[in-house]
Amino acid sequence: MTLAETDEQRSLRTAVAALAARYGHAYFAAAARDGRTTDELWSEAGTLGYLGVNLPEEHGGGGGGITELAIVLEELGAAGCPLLLLVVSPAICGTVIARFGTDGQKRRWLPGLAAGTLRMAFGITEPDAGSNSHRLTTTARRDGDDWILTGRKVFISGVDIADATLVVGRTEDARTGRLKPCLFIVGCDAPGFVRRPMPMELAAPEKQFELVLDDVRLPASALVGDEDAGLQQLFAGLNPERIMTAAFANGMARYALARAVDYAKVRQVWDEPIGAHQAVAHPLARAHIETELARLMMYKAAYLYDTGDDAAAGEAANMAKYAAAEAAVRTVDQAVHTLGGNGLTKEFGLAALITAARVARVAPVSREMILNYVSHRTLGLPKSY
Fold this sequence. Notes:
Strand order of the largest sheet: 2-3-7-6
Largest sheet: 4 strands, antiparallel
Shape: globular
Structural class: alpha+beta
């Protein structure tokens, strides 16, 4: 692993930053405030090839990896206009289909996901399962050549703007009778598929939904990959999800820090700008250090995933998500504090990040579950559950 970016990666970062600067936080905030989507930015990013930079070239993608997609999301976030659906549509769903989908599924979905003309949501979270995926109650049973999917999901992002949802269900193992995870592509217009908006305090262009799957009939072709390899396929999507969540948080932290530094350089109360005072300067310097450390772990995780080391990538992806979320929360808080009352005004675009940064601590997995993962898997400590 090298810490130096390739020429292609540097060029990608520069190009995405330029696109994001043309839209900026004002565009993003207005869309969230007015209940609109960010379709203009999404479409242009897709046309330029940024949305599918991680997907195979033979299916319209850029042939890169999660490293390149993390660059895209981080730079969008650093300009104040992160696209949350990047975590879901190309990173989770696109990755799973590219690695495990049938040829027909790849031809049907990957070109559109890469171009941004198709979008896919991801349905795993359930109201009674929390972080325990073994308690998922959405089940799929065979009916001839079809599947019948029944269950309920919550906190599913962007279903209203998606063409389909990649749903995590459970099927019965014919040998043991135990339930095992499987993934199904469910069209959002499928009979029995119902979405209900979930009112949120968080203002974001991407809305959250509850899904009800009432005996949704699916063809055999809706099953992704091998029925007996569902757990492997699921984690092939969850590791990119954590890496991309880290990119989301790191971009947010960079945006907040830049606003605070700009302000501290010019805001003058006494003889010098407030940035000259160590009580202001040192917390901002610490925020920069913590964000840079989180970025290093994020790119380590992306490198491990892109080189096929899934086991090591799992540990690194969890640690990257943890570090980025903590850095983002502290950085946003310090940025708002640096601006004082101005930090709560619409003009500077920081107040909304207080809630947004907090989300990174609990989604897609809580920091406590990450600490459990590290203490058990890495340190070998016994479980309490």
